[in-house]
Design brief:
Immunoglobulin-like; 5-stranded mixed beta sheet; about 10% helix; globular; binds CU-O-CU linkage; binds copper (II) ion
Length: about 475
């Protein structure tokens, strides 16, 4: 079925259930607007959020979730739901050892929950799916920032509606620094750039279209064009020097295999939970929904006038989209570039499987429920009142995810970071062996074993598939850390 047929077939459904995606006049034009030629617009850099106030220990922020009108496609205004009305939201820059307190006000017509993805956060500030902020209400989230420097992101997590809310624009970066990371000679400041890669569909009026159907609940929603920091396949003018890029797969479902068009490797320095033990040169890097990588690209190796495209080699997405963005080398470095990638980054010890006291297995499968095939974990749908695992504080556990379904599932575990022991019995290759909170469980009977220790926080959290349509249709379970 073509996208056009898909839209015509489900026009009624979309019009009725998702009025917020229609134009202001209520007229929904469901024919998707064909993508423009790539590399027509510059890369936007989301602004850094300034604290409302600060004291010795804490920075206090205020954010309002609200409707915004933004120019995403040249010459068209798109209605988004955004943190401070922006898409992506403003970037929060935090420092280990300093608390960040974020007061979120919900001026949108639906209930919201703000989750800090990758945050080692007590449950009351984690942004759990049922910890909702009603329209007109506010909630204050406290982030202790007692974890290693990493690229985190915040996004909506309202139960059953996360996919649509995030798609409407409710996502932003949360960059955590620490002293050790700052002591390394990596590119910093303006040469440290976060890139949120997301796919979207627009109609001819410029409105976002979220085609949630019986089919896309199963496949996940794929957009027909890629946005980076809210701009369609942008270009980015760079100097002949090293740049650090924090790349987030902020797409609802799509997976990316990032690579450079000239065949040069990407030098990976970090993953979800922060720096790797050592940098690794990789010809391509696979990033599933919710995962982050950090890479350094040395543009000094290219003559002025060179363009390098960040490619997506993945061919499982529908439609396939090969170009992410383009780097244009347009000037010499403003000052001598003293940054470099050291041979060692952050010392990281592998946790021995012998340290684990408990092993748990979670099987991802398709189950018939009310006449419909639906994704489940151990045959069960999410039930907010059921707790499927009760790990003990400071204990180490091995969790095994078994994929008995016809589709890959990027699994995400709240609260702590994990090490991958193996995928189908094979230890992870360098780059995938860092601290992870999201990892793909591959199709075709894939088995992933991860090991982690439940430190600091007691209480309830969730684990779920980060294909957001799967999550919203109950591919999730509760766990509770107990004393
Ligand atoms: Cu990025 Cu529980 O989500
Ligand atoms: Cu999360
Ligand atoms: Cu899934």
């Amino acid at each position: 079925m073509t996208l056009r047929q898909l839209f015509l077939r489900f026009a009624l459904l979309v019009t009725c259930t998702v009025p917020c995606l229609a134009g202001d006049d209520g007229a929904t034009i469901l024919t998707p607007l064909p993508p423009n030629a790539p590399f027509q617009v510059p890369l936007p850099i989301p602004p850094t959020l300034q604290p409302t106030s600060s004291d010795e220990t804490t920075d206090y922020y205020d954010v309002t979730m609200q409707v915004g009108q933004v120019e995403i496609l040249p010459g068209k205004l798109t209605t988004i739901w955004g943190y401070n009305g922006r898409y992506p939201g403003p970037t929060i820059v935090a420092h280990r050892g300093r608390r960040a307190v974020v007061r979120q006000t919900n001026n949108l017509p639906e209930s919201m929950s703000v989750h800090l993805h990758g945050g080692h956060t007590p449950p009351e500030s984690d942004g759990l799916p049922l910890d909702l902020i009603g329209p007109g209400a506010m909630k204050t989230y406290t982030y202790p920032n007692n974890q290693e420097a990493a690229t985190l992101w915040y996004h909506d997590h309202a139960v059953d509606a996360t996919g649509r809310h995030a798609y409407m624009g409710l996502a932003g970066f949360y960059i955590l620094h620490d002293e050790y990371e700052e002591s390394l000679p990596l590119p910093r400041g303006e040469n440290d750039v976060a890139l949120a890669v997301q796919d979207r569909i627009f109609d001819y009026s410029g409105a976002l279209v979220y085609p949630l159907t019986d089919t896309t609940i199963r496949t996940g929603v794929y957009g027909d064009r890629l946005l980076v920091n809210g701009a369609p396949q942008p270009y980015f003018q760079v100097a002949r020097q090293k740049m650090r890029f924090r790349i987030l797969n902020g797409s609802n479902t799509r997976q990316y295999i990032f690579a450079l068009s000239n065949g040069d490797p990407l030098v990976q320095i970090a993953t979800d939970g922060g720096l790797l033990g050592a940098p690794v040169s990789r010809p391509s890097i696979t990033v599933t929904s919710g995962e982050r990588i950090e890479v350094v690209i040395d543009f000094a190796q290219y003559p002025l006038g060179t363009s390098v495209i960040l490619k997506n080699l993945d061919t499982t997405g529908t439609p396939v989209i090969a170009d992410v963005m383009r780097f244009d080398v347009v000037r010499e470095a403003d000052s001598p570039d003293e940054s470099y990638v050291p041979k060692k980054l952050r010392p990281m010890e592998r946790i021995s499987p012998k340290e684990a006291t408990v092993n748990r297995t979670f099987t991802l499968q398709q189950t018939l429920y009310k006449g419909r095939q639906i994704w489940t974990i151990n045959g069960q749908l999410y039930d907010p009142t059921r707790v499927d695992a009760r790990p003990k504080l400071n204990e180490t556990e091995i969790w095994t995810f078994v994929n008995n379904s016809g589709q890959s599932h990027p699994m995400h575990i709240h609260d702590i970071h994990w090490q991958i022991i193996d995928v189908n019995g094979v230890p992870p290759e360098p780059g995938d062996d860092g601290w992870k909170d999201t990892f793909n469980v591959p199709v075709g009977g894939g088995v992933v074993r991860v090991i982690g220790t439940f430190t600091d926080n007691l209480g309830g959290y969730v684990t779920h598939c980060h294909k957001l349509e799967h999550e919203d249709h109950a591919m999730m379970f509760n766990f509770a850390v107990e004393p």
